[in-house]
Structures are given as C-alpha cells and as structure tokens.
Design the sequence.
C-alpha cells in the first residue's frame, strides 16, 4: 500500500505570496491616491460652503460680511463683520460672538496655490442680496494630481470647477 501526502509545495506557496504582494502594493497606492483626492474635494466643498455661509449671513442680518483669505503659511479663510480680521488669530474673525474660520491644515495633502481676490486678499458680501460686486475672485486648491477652483462671481454665485482633466462631479473651468 502506497501513502500519498496531500499539501502544497514550496513553489505553490511562493507563487501565492507573490500574487498577494502585487495585489497589496496596487491596493495601497490606489487607496493613497483616493485619499488625496477626497481631501481635495473636501477642501473645495468646505470653501464653497464657507463662502455660501458668508453670503447667507449678509442676507439674513442685512449687513456687510467680509471674507479674509490668508494664502501663505497656515492657509485659512475667515468671516467677519469688520474688514481685515486675521484668521490665524484667535477670536479675530467673529460674527455674533462666534469664531468663523476654515483652516486648510485639516486637509494634509491640499495646498492653496493661487488666490485672485485682490490685495489684500479678501471679499465682501453686500446686503440685501448678498452680492460680491467688485470683490469677485477665485481660490485654487491642488493636491499634486488634481486642481480645483472655487469661483465667486460679482453676483455672489459660488461654484467649483477643475483646471485639470475633469473628474466627477466637477466640470472643466
């Protein structure tokens, strides 16, 4: 009587480990790319909603609301009833005793690369319709692979578009 042993050979095990390591490397790089893209989308959408909030505050309270942009160093946006607040200074950008600041440091792979709101970089929304007449501009955010622009028109309309090849859900600028 002959006994046969069931099991895997060393070569089969090595082939299996090689295939698994290739799949793991591809998966990790795909995940990192997806995470960078989500950070960029999050920063652009938060900027969009921040500008929309400034417009809403102007309409609701029937007063001028200023948006201050700090493009260098620790980039941030700040809302205030007074021009020239410093969004990197605590309790400087305040509306109704609440600090209103968006810090881009919350998005580690995103950089604010271009601001076209004038010098100093700021905008304002005027009551009663929340228009940004004379203070239109854009913010450009990038993660190294993709670039998104947050645009503000003179009419107070805010939108997001991409300057790199379009990716869902953003259209080309």
Sequence:
């Amino acid at each position: 009587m002959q006994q046969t042993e069931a099991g895997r050979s060393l070569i089969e095990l090595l082939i299996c480990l090689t295939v698994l390591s290739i799949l793991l490397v591809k998966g990790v790089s795909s995940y990192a790319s997806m995470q960078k893209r989500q950070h960029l989308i999050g920063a652009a959408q938060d900027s969009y909603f921040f500008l929309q909030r400034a417009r809403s505050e102007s309409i609701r309270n029937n007063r001028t609301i200023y948006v201050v942009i700090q493009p260098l160093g620790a980039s941030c946006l700040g809302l205030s009833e007074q021009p020239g607040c410093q969004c990197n200074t605590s309790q400087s950008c305040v509306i109704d005793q609440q600090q209103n600041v968006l810090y881009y440091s919350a998005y580690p792979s995103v950089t604010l690369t271009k601001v076209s709101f004038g010098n100093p970089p700021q905008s304002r929304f005027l009551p009663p319709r929340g228009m940004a007449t004379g203070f239109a501009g854009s913010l450009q955010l990038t993660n190294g692979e993709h670039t998104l622009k947050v645009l503000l028109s003179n009419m107070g309309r805010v939108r997001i578009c991409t300057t790199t090849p379009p990716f869902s859900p953003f259209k080309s600028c």
